[in-house]
Amino acid sequence: IFAAFLTYIGNKLEVDIYMAAVVAFGTRLFQNFATIRRFLLNKFNKRGII
Fold first, then answer.
1. How far apart, in whole angstroms, are the C-alpha atoms of residue 8 and residue 20?
2. Which residue, 36, 13, 10, is CA-closest to 22?
3. Longest Cα pair distance anywhere in the chain, in angstroms?
4. 26 near 34, Cβ under 8 Å?
5. What is the spatial distance between Cα 24 and Cα 26, in angstroms, rounded to a whole number?
6. Under a CB-based contact definition with an 8 Å cutoff, are residues 33 and 25 in contact?
7. Considering the entire predicted model, what is its pTM?
8. SS3 category, 44
């Protein structure tokens, strides 16, 4: 329901609100990749592989 409301408001204001969602999800995706990378680097560093 909230998504439909945001879409309606975006259409009335002629603003592409979906772009905000794309930016937010993209940012979150790269943050998750960075967290996984740090975890793996720490794991391998403790084993002496790196």
1. 15
2. 10
3. 58
4. no
5. 5
6. no
7. 0.58
8. helix
Residue type, position 37, single letter:
R
The residue type found at 29 is L
Question: Which amino acid belongs to residue 24?
Answer: A
pLDDT in tens, 9-45: 888 888 877 777 788 889 999 999 999 999 999 998 8
DSSP type of residue 12 = H
Tally of residues, the chain:
50
Contact 15, 6 (CB under 8 A): no
pLDDT at res. 50: 65
